[in-house]
Amino acid sequence: MWRRLKTNPLSLVGLGLIVFFALLAILAPFIAKPSANARSPYFIPQESFAVDPKPPRPGHPFGTSQESYDLFYGIVWGSRTAFKVGLTVVGISLLIGILVGSLAGYYGGWTDEILMRFVDIILAFPSFVLAVVIVAILEPGLSKVMTALAAVSWPSYARLLRGEILTVKQQNYVEAARALGASSARLLAKHILPNAIYPLIIIASMTMGHVVITAAAFSFVGLGAPSGYADWGQLISLSRNWIIGTAGNPFAYWYAFFFPAAAIFLFVLGWNLLGDAFRDILDPRMKR
Q1: Partner of 62 for a Cys bridge, out of 71, 101, 125, 185, CB 3.0 to 4.6 A?
Q2: Top-level CATH class of 71-286?
Q3: What pTM did the predictor assign?
């Protein structure tokens, strides 16, 4: 796997970006040390209550946003938020998708009909609109956003896995194991799932970036993280009034939106490039 990965420079770039953000998240308490009296390390310290952003300067290398939130602190701790949102949503979606897709694909019949018609009902709604409705019902908050995104994301995993299982379970080695008396649980766990789950891993790695962007959009419109929380979407929301700068200088407050936007861009780019690498490595049709 490593040999195939290092033959693609763009894959190495994606891996390097993800490793960089992972180290940033792990070392966040040392890179941007929270204050001793902070209610939570995820809440950005405020220098004052000044309305307009302030440019980069000693003590604030990225400057401060509206209401004087430290952008550097928000970017560093926001990397933890990004991983928490992405891994939680994708992990829950994968678990539900694997369970539903496995049952529908393996057993077929009425089990397949009931589960897949339920999947079709969910997929009939635009996912973002449905997620907004769920968040509105549950009340705004980052945990509610993760719940909503997981609720609208798992059907695509279930449908994809069902199709793969329908193909794999017809293979000769599965029929041979069944003839030798292997139980349904053993067939699924040892013979079918390991050979059908690779497409889900590829899609999950590519979905990580999409989940982070969607969660940032919720924060931007006020349905996600609360004001002052270390979330990249929240930081961009604080810069919305300053994007066009001033009448004489349209880039007067460039730092207010550039650094959080760059963090989102690089994080999503890293996962997309890594997803392409996983496709090249795990998809047997791509092997030379």
Answers
A1: 71
A2: mainly alpha
A3: 0.89
